[in-house]
Each structure stands twice: as C-alpha cells, then as structure tokens.
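Dear U.,

For the methods section draft, I wanted the exact inputs and outputs in one place so we can describe them consistently. I've listed the two proteins in the order they'll appear in the manuscript figures. Please don't edit the token lines directly; just add comments below if something needs changing.

First protein:
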Amino acid sequence: MEQALIVHFARVVFFLIFLAAAPAGAAVLAAYTVLGPDGAVARAVIDDAACPAIEIDGRGLTMQVRVAADARFPLVCEAALPPAASTARIGAMALPLPKPEVRRIALFGDSGCRVDRNTFQSCNDPAVWPFARTSAAAAALVPDLVIHVGDYYYRERPCPAGNSGCAGTPSGDDWLAWQADFFIPARPLLAAAPWVVVRGNHENCDRGGTGFFRLLDPRPYPATCPDVSAIYRVMAGALSLYVLDSGEASDTLTSGDLVERYRTQFAALRPSPGGWLLTHRPLWGVVRVGAAIGLSLLVNGNATLQEATRNALPAGLEMVVSGHVHLFEALGFADRRPPQLILGTAGSALDQEIATDLVGRAIGGTTIAYGRTLHAFGVTTMERSGQGWAATLRDEEGRPRFTCTVADRAVSCAP
C-alpha cells in the first residue's frame, strides 16, 4: 500500500513538472526535432485529442498524427521540416532546426536510470544518476547537433519496497517511464539542437521498443515492432552518419540468421568519404565482466557484427561511434581500420573500471594500437580539427577532462 502511494505521488509530481514547464494553456508534453533519412522531423507529444498547429517560417499547418493515444502513451504528432526552413514553433515553443554547417556535436549514450533485473540505481540522487546534469551541461555548450547512441529506457521493473534510492519511480514501457528516464532530464538539450537517435538493446521489442518507435525513431511508424530495422543515412551539414540498429546483435554468439541479415546491410552500404557508423553495440570494444561471481574478465566487442563484417568495414567510414559499454573508450587499431569510440557515459550505472593497458591486446582479428578508457559520467563534444575531429570528454558539468584527436584512421588523446 505504501509503495502504491509513493508511485501515485511520483506520477502527480511528474505531471506538475510538465505543467510548470509548458506554455500557459498548452497541452504539449514534449517538442523536439529528430533527423532521419528524409531530413528533419518535428515531433510533439500531446496531452490532447488532436494534433496542434506548427508554424514554419510564419506559415501555419496542422501536425499529422504519428500514433494515436492509448492507455500507455499520449498522442504523438509530427511534421516534416523543409530543408530551407529558418524558424519552426509549436505555440510559444521554438524548435531547433538543422544547421547548414555542423561545427559542434554533443554525443553520449546509455542515459536512463537503471532499474532492471538486479540493478537498482538511485534515480532520486543526481550524483548517482546524473543525466539531468549531463543534459543541461551539454545544452550550455550550444551544440549544432546531438547524437544519442542508444539505451534511453531503463526503468523496466518497479523499485523494490524499502529502496529509497529509486522509490516512486514509474516502470514499464509507457509514457510515465519514458518521461522520467528521458524527456524530463533531456528537456534543455532537446530544445538546444536537433537529435540523431540510435536504437539500443534496451529499445528492443521486448523492452522499450514501443516507446522508441512511437517517440524517437525518425522514420514512418511501423505497423509492428521490427527486431532489426534497416540501416539509414542522416546528412548533418556535409557529414554523413550511418545509423545501424544493432540492438539484437548478440555480443557473444555468431550463429543464426542475424549474422546474414547484418551482413546484407553492410554489403549494401556505400558510405561517403568521412562518414561515421553509429551503432549502439560497438564492433570492437572492451568491457570487464564477472565481478558478481568473483571473476574479472575482459570481453572484446560484438561477435555478431564482427562475423557479419568479417572485421572489415566499407571504404569511406572514418570512425565507429557506439555506447552499450558504460565507460568512455577511444580505440585505434594496428591494421588502421576506423577507430572505435564508446560513449556510454550519460548517466546509467557505470560498468567496471578497466585499469589494464589495452595496447597490444588482440581484438577482432587485429590488435589495439591505442587505447584510452575512463570510468566516469559525462558528455563528449566533437569539433572539426584540421582533417579530422577533436573529441573532448567532459564531466557532468561540461568541464573538459581530455581531448582525443581522430584523424587518418588513428586516435590519440591528451593529456
């Protein structure tokens, strides 16, 4: 009974927060811009029976229904934004529009508060779950683009009775959990810039897939939740981003039809020079596992994707950007395949720290030529640097920790 009252109180609090943040009389629960294969899409979550008007360059039109409201989610509306649009707003809420030149990108993944299986993160403590701080710090850096590499939704189970750290949190793939995990803490960053969204394994169909395809995926709403959706390209200024749905790609198994399905996607990929591959699960990455049973094993990358690509990506790709591992990692390779960045630092409970020097470690048919890891929360900003990119890892307040240069299929960090 006490737990039920706490949950009810939390729902009331979340509702009041949105009422306070929304324009007077508005029924807009969230408004944001996502980039997809066909350009920019304005998206709005509406506590009403009809879609609102959107004003684009002074011209008003009614947004279209993406998905009707049901018992779990409010109405979701959308409108395609013309490439040349200079302003867009829903009521008093201005929407961020794509920039013709992308100078600064904010990147991270694995942002939700982990209340799943046997992990109960203290969602009520901003020092333990800092995503709201990370989001606000990233917004203050005024990025032109935000890239989230997956795992938005983590509140899969009710908080156990007596656990004050997560007491009152909503749970389940519905709007209350999605607003608590993502839309409330991400609000300042959703208002700051358009987003490129990558599906994570926590958005698989048996977890948070319904919410992901209703709320975030930039493509037309699918009739049924796909276990693997098609790879697509996003143009961000002159930068080509290739978004791979790797949520179902097993980290350990190489059997079954998934390998062939991913192999087919990679075989059809013809990336532009300088393109990035965005995939939640890293092809090559190191994670320490086994602490719960007294072991300390280092595990290398994703077996399914390594088998599908045979560890050779199509020419043109400059780097691979991923999450899934809840650490920062920058890896360069002896055979000069594209460097791998892992940015699972937004707020979900961190993985075990890696104190081992990774240089010389065998991985995916080569060895690691350069490796830098950090066990810390934060956001990474990317900015052009000569012929490459400067990736600066920042803490939850936006303060720089160190900068890595990614150029000519190599990576190095300083200090």
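Second protein (the one for the lower panel):
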Amino acid sequence: MKVLILGATGRTGKHLVNEALLRGLEVNAIVRKADKLAENERLYVLEGDVTDEATLAQGMEGCQAVLSCLNISRTSDFPWAHLRTPEHFLEDMLKALMKVMEKEGVKRLILTSAWGVSDSRAEIPGWFRWFIDNSNVGKAYAQHEVQESLLSKSDLDWTAVRPVGLNNRKGLKELIISQAGTPKPRLMISRKHTAKFMVDIITDSKYFNKTPVISEK
C-alpha cells in the first residue's frame, strides 16, 4: 500500500512517516523543506504547498489513503504566541484535498483533530476550555471544527482522530479509545502512539466516519 502523508516534518508527522515505513508501506510526503526527512527507498518527498491542488495531485499519485497531521502552527508553544500558519490554513488545505481525492478516486482519509473539538468540548477540563476561548490555541480548535464539519458532509471514508494532550514520551502505555466520553479519556498521549494508531486504522472500517478520542493509561 502507498499513502500520502501531510505534515510529515512535524512532531507527530515524523513518527507517522517512521511508523508507516516500519510497516512496509510506501510513503509520499509533501513538505516545505525536503531535507528535514531522512532518505528511504520507500519514501518519495515532494516540496510544495499543501493547499495547491496540482501539488496534491502529484503527491497522491498511486496512493490508496491520505494521512494528515497538519495543524495551525504558532511561533512557540506559548498559548498567546503569534500564528505561523494562515488562520484558515486547515480549511483551505482540506477543501483542496477533498477535490483532488475525488478526482483521483482516493476515499480513505485520516487526520488529526483534537479532544475538545465539537461534541467533545464538554469532556475537557474547564481550565483548558478557558485557554481555547482566550488564547491563540482556539484558532486551531476552530479550524478542526471546520474540518470535521466538511468531512461529515463528504463521501470520503474519513476518520478525525482526537488525541488528548500530546507529549514526546518514547514508550507506549495502554491505549484508551473513547467515543462520546466513554471510557473517560486520560489527559495525555504520546505523539508516537498517536501516529501508531493512525497507521493501525488505515484499513479498519469500524473507524470510518468516526471521531475517536485517544489517550493512554
């Protein structure tokens, strides 16, 4: 199987590329700077803009699925840091991607959303809702909500994965997969485990058109 990965040089995206390659998949990746990824015989890296339909079409050639870890980026992890990406970046990217996927006949799409988006907002701690409402963290959440709305109206076999707080732990703890708050999610999950879950469910139809929340015990 060949997959297109978007956001491949990000903190979760690098794990996603590594996990896909470890499983024997062929990987196409669209990035801004190709030298940020190590060379691999099963990895084809294309430099370009992920909101450009022609670039997406080139990257999607021969692929059976698309996986995206793209997000609204800030200049630092400080909640009030300025945005590095355009405010409507995720919306613009997904609209272009959906057009290309339809043209190319690719149905499977897995992307990262976030715990606290849409109907899961009531599940998150009150202090975190405050940060979403009062800092630039909310810009990403607003875009994730737009993405999920667009997907819900599409004919794609999509999954919007909602990880809880992300960390860089290398080891994997026991995975908790929650829907509608059941079982109750924990507060953290590693980026590595998030990437592993995304690859695990590529062909798993029980996650089609779902928004699973993932966390670790």
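Candidate sentences for the figure legend, describing the second protein: The mean pLDDT is 97. The beta strands are 2-6, 26-31, 43-47, 65-68, 108-112, 157-163, 165-167, 175-178, 188-190, 213-216.

Thanks,
Y.
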